Amino acid sequence: MIKTATKNLATIKDKRKDTVLWDVYYILEAEYFNTYNEKYFELMTMVRRIMEFGYSTGRVYKGLVLYVLSKLNSSYHEEYETHIRDDRALHGEIKGFLS
Predict the structure, then answer these.
(1) The overall pTM is greater than 0.85
(2) Which of 37, 42, 64, 66 lies at a CB distance of 3.0 to 4.6 Å from 80, suitable for a disulfide?
């Protein structure tokens, strides 16, 4: 199921698609209730916050999606780091969101 969530989330890096975000949320929720692994609870909460916070496009939204992807699949970590590397304001905003 996590591979499906990662694949679906990877399709929306640049443009918000709420149906995909909800699908990913429910997959993470099911995974959390099957395993009680706090990682899935944290990611589930983060996806919900992304939807509630109202980011729909742009660098912050893409950064948040890449962050979740990097936590689901480490091969996205470098892409996330590259995305935020040169933009201190973006880095600060994402870190603030994650706090």
Answers:
(1) no
(2) 66
